[in-house]
Design goal:
The complex is a heterotrimer of chains A (about 250), B (about 675) and C (about 220).
Chain A lengths: L5 E10 L8 E11 L4 H14 L22 E2 L2 E2 L21 E5 L8 E3 L2 E2 L2 H10 L20 H11 L6 H5 L6 H12 L2 H4 L2 H14 L10 H5 L7 H15 L1
Parallel strand pairs in A: 1-5
Antiparallel strand pairs in A: 1-2, 3-4, 3-5, 6-7
Chain B lengths: L11 H10 L13 E5 L3 H13 L2 E5 L17 E2 L11 H11 L6 H20 L14 E3 L6 E4 L5 H18 L3 E4 L2 E9 L2 E9 L5 E5 L2 E4 L20 H8 L4 E2 L4 E7 L22 E5 L2 H8 L13 E2 L1 H5 L9 H13 L13 E4 L1 H14 L7 H27 L8 E10 L2 E2 L12 E3 L17 H21 L13 H18 L7 H15 L6 H21 L11 H25 L23 H4 L1 E6 L9 E6 L14
Parallel strand pairs in B: 1-2, 1-10, 2-6, 10-18
Antiparallel strand pairs in B: 3-5, 4-5, 7-8, 8-9, 11-17, 11-19, 12-16, 13-14, 13-15, 15-16, 19-20
Helix pairs in contact in B: 1-4, 2-5, 2-12, 3-4, 4-12, 10-11, 14-15, 14-16, 15-16
Chain C lengths: L2 H5 L2 H31 L1 H13 L1 H31 L16 H4 L1 H29 L9 H8 L3 H28 L7 H28 L2
Helix pairs in contact in C: 2-3, 2-4, 2-8, 2-9, 4-6, 6-8, 8-9
Chain lengths: ~250, ~675, ~220
């Protein structure tokens, strides 16, 4: 807006040709970045500069650019999605940086998120966890009971929604010193555990999803709470506690 | 070409039921012998893939994103309509049907729209059964809100993230089928051509975006559910990857493209801030439930605001022009999107815009009235019958935060302004495309075996879509229409057997894709893909945007044709074909956008009337309202591809007959 | 699903860590209360110590259970640490952990190892002489000897210093560990907030209480 100005910045960016290649941090200089630009628009500007210089542009994941699709990632200056909490990279704006800043940009790092190229990582492990049990086994006929036949206490519905607000970006894994996916899985388990529709399969769901999570090579949760702080959607640690309870109850059955 | 919409006979409310009862079926033991490809995993694609997989067909689903959960349906904010009448305000299937036809300015097919209204209630039941956490009231019942173009509350929602919750519901159903092995998912794959064998859709050529490998996939039917083409304008509320390529490829193979000029410009988006802007962000229509749209009454005030000398909060009620309430007292701020957008443009064109950018385009969306009224209500509800002004303001802001917190936070992140304290600045932006691939009542394109669903088809919204109806259509198509109509088509395919990908048609299609890729990579031009995309966007926005005229459209057609030549001559695409190469992906998408852009201008030029989102300056009444020409333009324009030169495309017409709704001027006054 | 895989799952491991930790926390409370008596009364301390030293239930049941608890907590902690390190094969060039989590929570392995090293010293100081007294040399039961031994150990400023340092690290370990174990077992309800405070209070009172006792005896020589 009117308060926007232009700044010059230095970038240190992880470049890696493909999954097999060895990568390294490369340095770039970028001038005249508007502070009204989003972080990804800044990267667009860098890529335009690289393309004009006939150099290889930086590959990074992005799609909706309004903080909901969960496609953007990036570990910026040592934090998942950068310095602003409750914000995805696409909603981070350059006004959070100063003229002359050096900005580190790295991919989300986890054994379960192998690098595809540059800053792009493969997060399909999340999909496989979902496929292991993140659903209600109801056919899609539309011939279910009326939507209002089962009242759901507002409190439960709201908690379920808050858990379901997870965008599956993987910031929790990226920021966790153990590379644990407990916040992601905990949120999905919680959403269904809080709703009557999800209760029927609760036991199998939590066992299957946790088994898949472990198979994917994520680390173990040590409750540092970093995931909750860095989650762009503010998913609460309560969801992990709930999953632990659900899991304990399920394994005793 | 003779267009057969295959609308069944009979009374409107029985058409779908009767038709469905007589469709052919495929027996469960035959379904595993049949392959189906679904391209796109938004609401329509994911729900179709899940439903067809559940039925027992072999389904292959494709998306260009890294996960099916990221399709752009996820970004829909406000809600989904359904004729449940839970709020007891007189809603019914007929009313939803009527509102949708009227909202679409009488340019949609009656039968399709009625079917949509009929199944709308099932969608809500289905989603709740899947664990979609819709908003509820304190009694545990589902809550509703109002959207534009209606006078009742039929919109179901989950805060400002309804699309996300519905898509995650469909994604969960899809994930279940993937886990069961009935759907095979291909993430980071882009469909680059349709393969036709003996006139029927028999497969696709897809590029693995990670390895760059071209893959052949065969099937007995192909479902295209790849969304809309708003990105033809470069700046839109669409995701960066949203594209028309799948739809355009089938168009080039014989599917007609319908009503390309019907584009929805959404009134409440955050205004453009600068040259490096990559996309525009929507502020949900639901905000118009609580916000009032205005500009200053005096031009001097607008100038002072733009110069930063005056704050909007300093202007008294008398100095504000609530132009929607003034022009449309019956619907006020909740007029349909096209009407609201045009009204905002009209004020800005007259010099009342308040945004300090190059074009001064912006109006206010103000929540101060709502803060006062809701704050007062909240105080009374707490038993405080003499609240102080401060208490009222505080409670009112709390109410807003609970209802729209995520939207307000997003606004503040982008603009660095606090919308609880100062009104939001908004301006219309390209949001949705009503046009799309022409389909019949079965959602089948003019290519047998090639079905098109969701925003990618043209079928249900006429010349303007009502808010909260896109989600409804996507899920209706995928869950409740395609499973029946695709099965009906496949009933004749049970003896076909597996289709070989070694057929010459596959080889030929693959070669043509490979040639295109090689051409781009060896072009050695000087300008980036975005350079051309931005230029295309500018032509489109200025000449095929919110207001169009003959001169501008004629210019646009030749400018785009020239841009196309320059693009192919001078575009520079770095990298190689055997790697993740986003620039190459963009180049192929922009090539299709350029073609489509020209067709949109041609379509807008031939439609000598104003209707819905299509506003031709030559056709308006003395008050600036749209003037429809039902006598000459009550048809769907369906364009037929005739080769490289887009200006050679042939216009086919499907007459629209209104048997059950009395056609009338659309009036929201 | 096989029960064995349930038991080896990540959640089972963290619950096991939590439960063994909570067990050690309860032992620590007991140890602390006995030591505290040494500040007020030599007799009470001696008689408590004698009871702990000669009660068969404590000697033959609780002591092995405790030993197992310590070893289990340590081995499991180490295994988890290795697994967790393997979950991120390439480290970040720049990582700002303090932006989202406490030092204590990120460095349980360091505080744990220091406490473990201290445990070695503690065994050398008290447990080995005790075993030697009772079982190797088989000296007669003397219910008055404990206080003197305790005071004697805190004569050296170096030893007292090491002792204090170890308890500062124990404070950090408990600061995260107590509440972490509650989260791990899924305790999250309306009492959580109160329990959280209790956890922090425990993490402060017990280690610094031990330090107080050490300094008390050091300066009261």
């Amino acid at each position: 807006m009117s308060s926007a100005k232009n700044i010059n910045i230095n970038l240190k960016i992880w470049r890696q040709k493909n999954a097999q290649a060895k990568g390294s941090m490369e340095t770039y200089k970028l001038d005249n970045v508007s502070t009204a630009s989003s972080f990804l628009e800044m990267l667009d500007q860098l890529n335009e500069q690289l393309i004009n210089d006939k150099k290889s542009p930086v590959a990074f994941d992005h799609d909706c650019r309004e903080g909901i699709c969960g496609m953007c990632s990036l570990y910026i200056n040592g934090r998942a999605h950068g310095p602003e909490t409750g914000t995805t990279t696409c909603q981070l704006h350059m006004r959070k940086f100063k003229d002359g800043d050096t900005i580190y940009i790295e991919p989300f790092r986890s054994k379960a998120f192998p690098v595809v190229k540059d800053l792009v990582v493969d997060r399909s492990s999340f999909d496989r966890i979902q496929q292991a049990g993140g659903f209600v086994s109801v056919n899609t006929s539309g011939r279910t009971i009326d939507a209002n036949a089962t009242p759901i206490p507002k409190h439960d519905a709201d908690r379920a929604f808050e858990a379901a607000a997870c965008i599956g970006c993987g910031a929790c894994v990226a920021t966790c010193k153990n590379g644990s996916a407990m916040l992601f899985v905990g949120a999905k388990v919680s959403q269904y555990a809080l709703l009557p529709q999800g209760k029927v399969e609760a036991t199998q769901r939590v066992l299957n999803m946790v088994r898949q999570m472990d198979e994917e090579g994520f680390g173990n949760c040590t409750n540092t709470g970093a995931c909750e702080v860095e989650c762009p959607k503010g998913i609460s640690l309560e969801n992990i506690a709930r999953m632990n309870r659900e899991y304990l109850a399920a394994s005793l059955k | 070409m003779k267009l057969d919409s295959k609308i069944p006979a009979g009374p409107i409310s029985d058409k779908w039921t009767d038709y469905k009862d007589h469709l052919k079926l495929v027996a469960p033991n035959n379904r595993p012998k049949i392959d189906i490809i679904v391209v796109g995993t938004g609401l329509a694609g994911a729900s179709a893939a899940a439903s067809l997989g559940e039925m027992g067909y072999n389904v292959k689903a494709f998306c260009f994103q890294d996960s099916p959960r990221r399709a752009h349906s996820i970004a829909a904010q406000g809600g989904i309509n359904a004729a449940k009448n839970y709020q007891n305000d007189g809603d019914s299937t007929y009313r939803l049907f009527y509102d949708t036809i009227k909202g679409g300015d009488y340019r949609a097919r009656e039968a399709n729209v009625h079917r949509l209204a009929e199944v709308s209630a099932n969608i809500i039941d289905q989603c709740v059964a899947q664990g979609v956490p819709f908003a509820r009231d304190y009694g545990g019942m589902l809550d509703n809100r109002s959207f534009g173009g209606t006078q009742l509350q039929r919109t179901f929602y989950a805060a400002g993230q309804t699309g996300q919750q519905l898509l995650l519901g469909a994604y969960s159903a899809l994930s279940r089928q993937i886990g069961l092995g009935r759907v095979k998912m291909f993430n980071r794959h882009e469909m680059l051509d349709l393969v036709k064998v003996d006139g029927k859709a028999r497969g696709i050529i897809a590029r693995n975006l990670v390895t760059g490998e071209l893959e052949r996939h065969s099937a007995h039917a192909v479902v295209i559910a790849t969304g809309g083409y708003g990105n033809v304008y470069f700046l839109s509320t669409n995701a960066m990857g949203s594209n028309v390529t799948a739809g355009w490829k089938i168009h080039k193979k014989g599917a007609l493209f319908a009503n390309p000029c019907f584009v929805q410009i959404h009134p409440t988006c955050i205004p453009v801030h600068g040259v490096n802007q990559s996309k525009l962000t929507l502020m949900s229509e639901s905000l118009r439930n609580s916000g009032r749209i205005w500009v200053p009454k005096r031009k001097e005030d607008a100038e002072a605001i733009r110069a930063g000398k005056l704050k909007p909060t300093q202007l008294s009620e008398d100095d504000r022009d609530y132009f929607l309430e003034r022009r449309y007292p019956a619907f006020g701020n909740l007029v349909p999107r096209d009407v609201a957008s045009r009204a905002a443009k009209e004020r800005c064109d007259e010099g009342f815009g308040i945004e300090a950018n190059d074009t001064n385009e912006g109006v206010y969306l103000d929540f101060s009235t709502e803060i006062q009224s809701k704050g007062k209500q909240a105080a009374y509800a707490k038993g405080n019958h003499n609240p102080t002004p401060d208490e009222i303001t505080k409670l009112g802001k709390q109410w807003l935060e609970e209802k729209y917190g995520n939207l307000f936070a997003m606004y503040e992140k982008i603009t660095d302004e606090n919308p609880y304290e100062t009104p939001m600045k908004i301006y219309p932006a390209v949001h949705y495309t009503m046009g799309g691939v022409w389909v019949d009542y079965n959602l089948q394109s003019t290519i047998p075996g090639c079905f098109v669903a969701g925003e990618a088809n043209f079928s249900d919204h006429g010349a303007n879509r009502l808010g909260a109806s896109a989600l409804m259509q996507g899920l209706a198509d995928g869950y409740f229409v395609l499973p029946y109509t695709v099965s009906n088509y496949l009933a004749d395919e049970i003896r076909t057997g597996k289709i070989s990908t070694d057929l010459p048609e596959f080889a030929e299609a693959e070669k043509s894709v490979k040639d295109t890729i090689d051409k781009f990579l060896n072009n050695n031009g000087t300008k980036s893909v975005d350079h051309f995309h931005k230029r295309l966007g500018l032509i489109m926005w200025n000449k095929v945007g919110m207001a169009r005229n003959e001169k501008g459209l004629t210019e646009a057609i030749s400018e785009i044709a020239a841009l196309k030549e320059e693009f192919y001559k001078d575009v520079y695409v770095p990298g190689s074909s055997d790697e993740l190469n986003p620039e190459l992906e963009k180049a192929m998408r922009v090539a299709d956008f350029i073609d489509l852009g020209q067709l949109m201008a041609m379509d807008a030029l031939q439609r000598n009337e104003s209707c819905g989102g299509h506003f031709r300056e030559e056709y308006q009444d003395s008050e600036g309202e749209t003037l429809r020409d039902d006598e000459n333009f009550s048809f769907v324009s369906a364009w037929e591809y005739m080769g490289y030169d887009i200006s050679k495309e042939i216009l086919n017409k499907e007459e629209l007959k209104y048997e059950f709704i009395k056609i009338a001027a659309r009036n929201y006054k | 699903m096989a029960k064995s895989s349930v038991l080896s799952s990540s959640i089972a491991k963290k619950v096991a860590m939590a439960l063994s930790g909570l067990f050690l926390i309860s032992f620590l409370a007991l140890h602390f209360s006995i030591n505290l008596t040494s500040v007020f009364s030599e007799e009470v301390f001696n008689s408590c110590s004698d009871f702990m030293g000669y009660n068969p239930l404590i000697q033959y049941v609780m002591q092995p259970v405790l030993a197992f608890g310590v070893v289990f907590h340590f081995v499991m902690g180490f295994v988890l640490e290795l697994q967790n390190r393997a979950a991120r094969p390439i480290a970040y060039a720049k990582n700002n952990g303090s932006a989202n989590s406490s030092w204590a929570s990120r460095n349980m392995i360091i505080s744990g190892l220091v406490v473990l090293a201290f445990l070695g010293l503690h065994f050398y100081d008290f447990w080995f002489p005790e075993m030697n007294y009772k079982y190797v040399e088989a000296l007669p039961q003397d219910p008055t000897r404990y206080y003197g031994e305790l005071v004697h150990k805190f004569e050296s400023p170096v030893r007292t210093g090491l002792y204090c340092l170890a308890f500062v690290l124990l404070f950090l370990h408990l600061w995260h560990g107590f509440n972490s174990s509650m989260q791990s077992v899924g305790f999250n309800n309306k009492f959580s907030r109160a329990l959280h405070k209790l956890g922090y209070a425990y993490a402060v009172i017990v280690p610094f209480g031990f330090i107080f006792i050490a300094l008390f005896h050091h300066f009261n020589q």
